[in-house]
Every structure is written in structure tokens, then in C-alpha cells.
Design goal:
116 residues, mainly alpha, Arc Repressor Mutant, subunit A, two-stranded antiparallel ribbon, 5 helices, 66% helix
Length: 116
């Protein structure tokens, strides 16, 4: 049984998604379609400067794309990169499900042996 992950896991991508504040920002951007550091900070209990730093991390991971709009940058979620993250998560979940099933079968075999 092969429980290897189909696609190598992108640690930078998962490090970016691993932060709850950044996940909340992604949620807001997905709901609204776009946002700026100012608009996101107004919806969260985080300063505009902190939001800008988090957006920088998301941008470097490829999860958001920015376009200049006046004095601000308008951010949108990169659908392709988000789909890649979902595919990786699904792949990792499937691999761990298989591993856990194998562990369960081993434990059951040990239990049957001990009961005999």
C-alpha cells in the first residue's frame, strides 16, 4: 500500500496558511472578492500595518495577488494557488487516513494475538 503524498508539500505555502490571522484574511478576501490593508484591518482586530505584513507573507506564498489602486494595493486571492493548497491538503489527508488504517489493522492483529 502506497501512502506517499502525491505532490510534494510546499512548506512556505503551509506556513503562510498556518497563521489564523492570515486564514481570516483569506476568508474575507474570498467573501468580498478583494480588499486592501485598510479595509481588512477595519474588519479585524489587527492594525493596518500588521495586516500589510500578513498580506506580504500571503503574497510571497502566491496566495494573493496585488494590484496598485491609487495609494493602496488591492489584493485578490489567487485561485490557482489556493486550489493547489487544497489539493495538497487533500493528498496529505488521504495519506494519513491510509496510515491510520494500517496502524488500526496492526493494533487489531496484536489484540487478536494476545486474546488467543
Amino acid at each position: 500500500m502506497n501512502t506517499a503524498v502525491a505532490e510534494p508539500v510546499d512548506d512556505d505555502l503551509w506556513s503562510a496558511i498556518g497563521d489564523p490571522t492570515r486564514r481570516r484574511m483569506l476568508d474575507l478576501l474570498l467573501v468580498d472578492g478583494h480588499g486592501t490593508a485598510t479595509s481588512l484591518s477595519q474588519q479585524m482586530s489587527v492594525t493596518r500595518q500588521a495586516v500589510a505584513k500578513h498580506l506580504g507573507v500571503l503574497d510571497r506564498a502566491g496566495l494573493v495577488r496585488a494590484a496598485a489602486e491609487g495609494r493602496e494595493r488591492r489584493y485578490r486571492v489567487d485561485d490557482a494557488q489556493l486550489a493547489r493548497a487544497v489539493a495538497q491538503l487533500t493528498s496529505v489527508g488521504t495519506a494519513w487516513d491510509a496510515r491510520l488504517q494500517r496502524i488500526k489493522r496492526i493494533a487489531e492483529a496484536i489484540q487478536r494475538t494476545q486474546q488467543s
